[in-house]
Design brief:
Elements (H helix, E strand, L loop, with lengths): L3 H6 L7 E4 L3 E5 L9 E5 L11 H22 L3 E5 L15 E6 L18 H14 L2
Antiparallel strand pairs: 1-2, 2-3, 3-5, 4-5
Helix pairs in contact: 2-3
This protein binds adenosine monophosphate (AMP).
Length: 138
């Protein structure tokens, strides 16, 4: 079933897109767990890791690998958490498979599961973060 991510992918609602190709779209998570928190999402709405074809999962991870380097360099992050919640019991809230790229600056800044940080940033700040990531893409 289509989720809010399909609306973003189909450009029906806005998002701060940092990368897209034929198979995946990556955009800033609206709840910036840390500066530069990005989601990598296949265009096709497979619900979770149990549904997604292996070749597509490999491409999602390839894009995540490139973006991880760009995000780290854009914000001078010291590390990165890459995670995926699969199934409600695992904390998934949007049932369209995605990887979270969460740059890390400090050991104490985050606790898992992530809390919701929505509403803390201005639209201009989101735009600037997305611009910096796109500029750092190789
Ligand atoms: P999960 O809980 O792992 O399914 O992650 C879903 C993520 O989607 C959460 O981190 C949300 O903050 C994020 N999210 C929900 N709606 C939007 C949106 N409209 N734009 C960007 N990120 C969103």
């Amino acid at each position: 079933m289509p989720t809010i991510f399909s609306k973003i992918i189909n450009k029906e609602i806005p998002a701060n897109i940092v990368y897209e190709d034929d198979l995946v779209v990556a955009f800033l998570d609206i709840s910036q767990a840390t500066k530069g928190h990005t989601l990598v999402v296949p265009r096709e709405p497979f619900q979770n890791i149990f549904e997604i074809p292996e070749a597509l999962a490999a491409h999602v991870f390839l894009v995540a690998t490139k973006l991880a380097t760009s995000i780290k360099s854009a914000f001078q992050a010291d590390g990165m958490n890459i995670l995926s919640n699969n199934g409600e019991v695992a904390g998934q809230t949007v049932f369209h498979f995605h990887l979270h790229l969460i740059p890390r600056y400090d050991k104490e800044e985050l606790k898992f599961p992530l809390k919701n940080n929505m509403g803390n940033l201005s639209p201009e700040e989101y735009k600037e973060r997305a611009r910096l990531i796109r500029a750092a893409l190789l």
